[in-house]
Amino acid sequence: MATENNNRQLAEIPYSVLDLATVLEGKTPADTFRDSLKLAQHVEELGYTRFWLAEHHNMISVASSATSVVIGHIAAGTHKIRVGSGGIMLPNHSPLVIAEQFGTLASLFPGRIDLGLGRAPGTDQVTANAIRAERFSAVQNFPNEVKRLQMYFSEENSGSPVRAIPGEGLDIPIWILGSSTDSARLAAEMGLPYAFASHFAPAQFLTAIHIYRQNFKPSQYLQTPYVISCINVVAADTDEEASLLATSLLQMFKGVITGRPRLLQPPVADIENLLSEYEQDTINQMLACSFVGGPDKIKSEILDFMEQTKVDELMVTSNIFDLKAKLYSYQLFAELMKNN
Known about the structure:
Elements: H1 4-10, E1 15-19, H2 29-46, E2 50-53, H3 67-76, E3 82-89, H4 95-108, E4 113-118, H5 125-131, H6 135-140, H7 142-153, E5 174-178, H8 181-190, E6 194-196, H9 205-215, E7 227-235, H10 239-245, H11 247-258, H12 277-286, E8 290-293, H13 295-309, E9 313-317, H14 323-338
Parallel strand pairs: 1-2, 1-9, 2-3, 3-4, 4-5, 5-6, 6-7, 7-8, 7-9
Helix pairs in contact: 2-14, 4-7, 8-9, 11-12, 13-14
């Protein structure tokens, strides 16, 4: 049961957005980018801290493959919200190129750019090989690749024969992203903030954040552990309306687990007829960190979640088909976070 003390603390928790630049049935990526900017402008006014975009490839429903380009689009259309990657899949890229790209973004939008890094490909293996054929060795070398990136951002690199211009000497926060205990150990060892993909891979979430906190080593970048948990939220005026809106999310995950992805589908009233028992059980496991309902239901569940996890920041992703309903969901979430 939530206490008054829990309630006061909730108002102090930063809340942010992970936008997957989801392409809707009947729409195009161009439509998606316009809607993502509308969402970013909306949540900026609502007091959200960050707006992150994720690198995925060869996925028909996700348009943020050129992540740094979309970050620039969002940052140019907003004023104060931090914009960044959740994340850049670093083994797909040269650290120097990422340093230059994010150095450019940070030069254009000072004090507003975050760089979240992951080691997964963000796609299937065949596509990963098409992106960077030597990717396997890059994945194994992920910790050193992160260190190379830090080197390019450092002022000390000014005497090196290879420099990131722009990028060198800029303060661009690096985050380690993950869905496993491996990423937790790395973030702890490097003294970096940690963002966990609990919105689709919650199985190791509690173990990972415990490992991160127990093994954290203070660094020049961060003195105490800092954890972001990404969660699914579908909020509406009533529990019933939210449950209907959430059927778009359920259909999306059905595509994931069956290997037959589709553009984001409109909500359906008979979702139980579209999912087998196996699919429903698997989806329930993957979406364990999901909050669907009216404001009272979600607030009670969020308070319990915060009591259990004590994360430092919540990052919300809301795969809702109707843009108006999506904007309203983010509004309701901001209100329940701010209002005691």
